[in-house]
User: Which sequence fits this backbone?
């Protein structure tokens, strides 16, 4: 910490446990006058007190308190000196904490202000540490203060995004990668996050080091209000950025009921997820490719099929009753499963609805990529059995009526310029590193013009 010019007078650990960080801070910062820990568990506090009686340090004190109820602002405002808040908040999500039966949770709210579907689906799930770190940032605004926390690397980036989105003060930000498997037996990408605050700076970037010992770093930060992995690399290709790239990348179909809506075709029968052979019209059945199929280039044939009940979101499904009566009867027979889908996106929509459908879903040519895999592998996908291929919702794709246009765009997306552009933006340690928001940033029309000019110059 001395190398980072951190010399606090006051040190606070909001979830101090048995006080290991408190003891370390007392040794590292001999000039700190107050070292304060807060912990909800009384047995941890007793253990710390017993240790401190053997090795007393009059600067250290611990208090019992619940992080989510404690008056942190009043505590910190008692001091006018440089403050360091340090520690290691829980590395679990709010849904995981709830599954474990814990009641020690923040009050539920859409604190990130997600809109529409994002507020109803996965983005409403967040790391408890993310919520706690955001609270800590607000305590430290407009004062000489430092935050030093162990956290997931993805949480550190979300924190930078929150600071940027809310135009909060930030003097500097740096992360040092740590071996979480070695030290914490956790299979996640983790780091030591250090943020310095003052009363006027708004430096919305972060220097990323590969280890605590490394002297080399790259800088992540904002370009066009988008957080990119490597600012320097992105800047060299920023002319390819587009607010509206024309061809829009979409995600595949979401239905949340694979046992009912997905089938394997065996001979002339369709077998659903319950292992039951079903006789259906093929009107609403389409060949299905999953993310793993796309990633592993299994794109020319499939025995998987999916029931797509709508051509666009919100379309009435009543017509299925007359056009494909066997299909309608099947949907009614299994209606209980579809009616009990938990996601709120199905509420107030026609019965048996799906999401992620539009005219783009039914074009015969598509370029696809799986969002979950850690490689920029684009696939050119044509029709299977003379029907449009449908993807699951781990796949992003753009679609075309014309094969030649699809092939030309496929070549562009695999060009060195396109791969370098996307590589400067993708954070490969994320659960879903490839996102539509990134894919849609590339101006394919401009790239095509540049590739043409380059080829013409060679001739």
Assistant:
């Amino acid at each position: 910490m001395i190398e980072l010019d951190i010399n606090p007078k006051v040190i606070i650990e909001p979830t101090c446990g048995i006080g290991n960080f408190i003891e370390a801070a007392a040794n590292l910062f001999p000039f700190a006058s107050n070292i304060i820990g807060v912990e909800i568990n009384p047995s941890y506090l007793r253990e710390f007190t017993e240790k401190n009686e053997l090795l007393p340090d009059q600067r250290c004190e611990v208090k019992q308190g619940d992080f989510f109820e404690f008056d942190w602002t009043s505590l910190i405002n008692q001091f006018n000196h440089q403050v360091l808040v340090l520690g290691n908040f829980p590395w679990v999500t709010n849904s995981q904490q709830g599954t474990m039966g814990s009641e020690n949770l923040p009050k539920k709210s859409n604190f990130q202000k997600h809109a529409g579907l994002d507020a109803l689906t996965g983005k409403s799930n967040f790391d408890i540490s993310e919520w706690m770190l955001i609270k800590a940032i607000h305590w430290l605004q407009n004062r000489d203060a430092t935050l030093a926390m162990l956290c997931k690397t993805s949480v550190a980036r979300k924190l930078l995004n929150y600071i940027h989105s809310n135009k909060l003060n930030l003097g500097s930000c740096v992360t040092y990668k740590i071996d979480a498997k070695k030290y914490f037996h956790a299979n996640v990408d983790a780091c030591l996050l250090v943020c310095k605050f003052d009363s006027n700076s708004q430096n919305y970037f972060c220097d990323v080091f590969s280890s605590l010992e490394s002297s080399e770093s790259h800088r992540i930060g904002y370009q066009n209000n988008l957080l990119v992995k490597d600012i320097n690399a992105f800047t060299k290709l920023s002319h390819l950025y587009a607010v509206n790239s024309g061809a829009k990348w979409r995600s595949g179909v979401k239905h949340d009921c694979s046992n009912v809506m997905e089938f394997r075709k065996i001979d002339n029968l369709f077998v659903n997820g319950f292992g039951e052979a079903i006789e259906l019209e093929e009107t609403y059945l389409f060949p299905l490719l999953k993310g793993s199929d796309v990633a592993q280039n299994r794109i020319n044939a499939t025995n998987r099929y999916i029931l797509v009940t709508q051509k666009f979101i919100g379309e009435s499904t009543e017509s299925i009753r007359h056009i494909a009566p066997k299909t309608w009867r099947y949907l009614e027979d299994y209606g209980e499963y579809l009616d009990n889908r938990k996601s709120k996106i199905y509420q107030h929509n026609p019965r048996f609805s799906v999401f992620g459908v539009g005219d783009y879903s039914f074009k015969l040519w598509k370029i696809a990529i799986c969002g979950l895999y850690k490689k920029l592998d684009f696939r050119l996908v044509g029709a299977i059995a003379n029907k449009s291929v449908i993807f699951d919702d781990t796949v992003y794709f753009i679609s075309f009526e014309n094969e030649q246009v699809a092939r030309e765009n496929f070549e562009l997306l695999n060009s060195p310029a396109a791969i370098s552009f996307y590589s400067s933006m993708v954070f490969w340690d994320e659960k879903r590193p490839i996102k539509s928001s990134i894919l849609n940033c590339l101006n394919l029309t401009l790239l095509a013009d540049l590739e043409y000019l380059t080829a013409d110059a060679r001739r």
Q: What stands out?
A: The chain has two domains: 2-234, 250-458. The CA atoms of residues 282 and 452 lie 43 Å apart. The chain has a mean pLDDT of 89.
